[in-house]
UniProtKB/TrEMBL annotation:
Keywords: Signal. Residues 1-28 form the signal peptide. It comes from the Bacteria. The keyword Signal applies. The keyword Signal applies. This is Outer membrane protein beta-barrel domain-containing protein.
């Protein structure tokens, strides 16, 4: 729980920072006051690099709580003028896939450790609420959930023991804060921070 509280605090701080950056930029123009004044797109495609915070190991495993990988997102707008009709916002459904690699140790019941690794697949699904705060900047909040599935190395390989390498699958809540710098109406630099992952990539608005 302390780890989740820490991640929650970091996510909240990041969200405030993202909105603060957007607010500073918004002082230079009034894009946020013009509903519909944002890229007209049917789908947003976002390849990205991923840093994962969640330690999802099963019983017997211990190790780094940070994983590295890559993935992508697809976002489909469903409400062009958003929930607040007098500001520049829209709402979409976002989903995707991330591949993440972790290092870990297996602790044997009688003592001792064995170096191993684990690969995880993350399947996030969330609502994306976008706010187009300035000509070049937009921010978003993404509440949702993610499904994950982990593949572990054989923890007994080379030890003389016989056992099966486990897998692990579950569903967890997720929340992300998103910030974008729009190079033009078709591309943006996109940063997403929250739980369980942090990512940086490029969005293509099609």
């Amino acid at each position: 729980m302390p780890k989740l509280r820490t991640i929650g605090s970091v996510s909240a701080a990041a969200l405030l920072a993202v909105f603060g950056a957007g607010e500073s930029s918004a002082m230079a123009d009034d894009t946020i006051k013009h509903p519909g004044d944002h890229p007209d797109y049917k789908v947003e495609i976002e390849p990205h690099g991923t840093l994962a915070f969640a330690n999802l190991y099963g019983n017997g495993y211990d190790g780094s709580s940070t994983g590295f990988g890559a993935g992508g997102r697809f976002t489909i707008p469903v409400v062009q003028n958003g929930f607040i009709p007098n500001i520049n916002n829209n709402v979409g459904v976002t989903f995707g896939l991330d591949f993440v690699h972790y290092s870990c140790d297996y602790r044997f019941p009688g003592g001792g450790k064995y170096d191993c690794s684990a690969n995880f697949l993350f399947f996030p699904v969330a609502m994306q609420w976008n706010f187009f705060v300035a000509e070049r900047w937009s921010v978003a909040a993404e509440p949702g959930l993610y499904i994950y599935h982990g593949f572990f190395d054989d923890p007994c390989k080379g030890t003389g023991f016989s056992c099966d390498g486990p897998t692990r699958t579950s569903v967890q809540p997720a929340f992300y804060a998103v910030g974008r710098y729009h190079f033009n109406e078709k591309t943006s630099l996109t940063m997403r921070i929250g739980y369980p992952t942090f990512s940086v990539g490029v969005s293509f608005f099609m």
